[in-house]
Amino acid sequence: MTMFEAILLTVATAATPLLIAALGELVVERSGVLNLGVEGMMVMGAVTGFAVAQYTGSAWLGMFAAILAGAAFSLLFGFLTLTLITNQVATGLALTLLGLGASAMIGESFVGLPGVRMDSLYIRGLTDIPYVGRVLFGQDPIFYISILLTIGVAWFLFRTRAGLTLRAVGDNHTSAHALGVPVVRIRYLAVIFGGACAGLAGAQLSLVYVPQWVENMTSGRGWIALALVVFASWRPWRILAGAYLFGAVTIGQLHAQALGIGVPSQLMSSLPYLATIIVLVLISRNKRLTLMNTPTSLGKPFVPDR
Amino acid sequence: MMRIEIVKRPQHSALFSALSPFIALFLTLIAGAILFSILGKNPISALYSYFVEPLTEVWSIHELLVKAAPLILIAVGLSVCFLSNNWNIGAEGQFIAGGIAGSILPVVFPDFQGWYVLPIMLLLGMAGGMAYATIPAFLKVRFNTNEILTSLMLVYVAQLFLDWLVRGPWRNPQGYNFPETVQFSDSAILPAIWPDSGRAHWGFALAIIAAVVVWFMLSRTLNGFEIKVLGRSSRAGRFAGFSAGRLTFFAFLVSGALAGLAGIAEVSGAVGQLRTSISPGYGFTAIIVAFLGRLNPLGIIAAGLVLALSYLGGEAAQISLGISEKSARIFQGIILFFVLASDSLIYYRIRIVSRLSDTALKGA
Where are the bilayer-spanning segments (chain B) (predicted)? Predict the structure, then answer.
């Protein structure tokens, strides 16, 4: 394997959790709901995935459990914001704080244990093709899921009637409601989907990226995923591009640290966070464009009149 | 089949406005009892060691005040932000920035001694927090950038910067390679209020003063009125001639200054030096404090004491019951959920409708 291939592989591994979590949040925001709990759902997915894989010995079961955990955890947010109509920003923060706390407690006995790694794909012949074999046919299963998910979300949102309805709910919930669209039910489904994606993204961290449990192991990736949705102007393919850009920044700074270019490692580690800020500034600078792309009902409370 | 139905109240309920924090605390206790039962502990004795035991000894009441001081200071500032619809969630970063800026004097110029050292440190701490909070405020006003994400990203940057500082240029040369700065000299230590009985420092007094001042500003001045109007409806605020951009700066500067003050007060009063980590997440817990205090600075004093108690309770429960002290963070998260849920009783009436009566209604 050449150096170039190795770098490409690690970039994909770093980008995948961002991509999956951001795609989930994209669907949630397209339905008009702002869930700032991505970090919390992701870390719950990470700890659940690790725990179940640890007890059953199967990374796959861990992954499915993480998806369920993320979805179940997101229901808490859904019930508060959609049924009790609480403030979405505050409730999302609450979800993140609770998730970080709960996962720290659940995972306390797992710290330092070797984890179960999800095997990468290996297809004799194809994977051995020089240069592109490993990158195309030798990655972990969650990588392929993330690509399929991008295609699926893009197709669903812009090529299906259900996707159109979901976007309509996000753009004007009052009109959608007047047309008889079940606004709250659609939003519940979107929130659960977002939770499932965040859970899967978390599982990627604890089963593929670094197969072990570390407290707060998401270290802001849920928030970067939220920023990616804004960066991508709420479009799935741009999320893919953004996630790989961030993956490249993350891996690039790690390699630079390894080469010892004389810049302190902590300052290099802060690069992905600074890059997020810079990218957000660049994208939001054009106020008209932002307004045009943002789902109009995003974050606004919906009280159905009866 | 049962269904929950929400009906908007014609007017806010004053009753639930006053009751909601208590309902939330009550529900949290019940949830805690259930949690402890699941963990196989006697819920009554667990809740006792969590919420009563820390209050039975003088030294631990001092610890309560030590932990409440930063929580109240930060949350008071956050209340100004949240009321004006500025979502500053990076107080943890501003806390660290304040701790660093305030430590310049005792770390870089340790020979500088005298009564004036401490006031300068506190002012520098406030300035550091303010400067750090200006970044998301400026980006929001000038470039329309989402302040939630920028302020949060800056938390990670501040944590990494502190880590570098304490392991690198500011490390104590005589410190056996521990990642710590020098111990502050006596003139750089925020003194204890009652040194004979415990270590509660004057940071708590500063917190009370800040809460009263901000309470006065919010409830008795035009500035406070402006904050509330623009927070509820930016359109109405614009018609009244209030500037949203100016207010965003104001809110971030106030909360940055208070978070910075909390940072240097913690470093100088409770720790006595800079370390790689100076906060067990005070900046985030303060968000819970602000909401539990219903964004009212006087309520925040009480809420800060409650959340400080949860930290101590976690430690006490770990010692006496063997429950991880991390359970405190679950408690804190649950409190915020219940606060938000019971707050919706203020604006909405909640009815549980059975499908049967629903169809009966339609038949009529």
Answer: 12-39, 59-82, 89-109, 115-135, 147-166, 200-218, 239-264, 284-309, 330-350
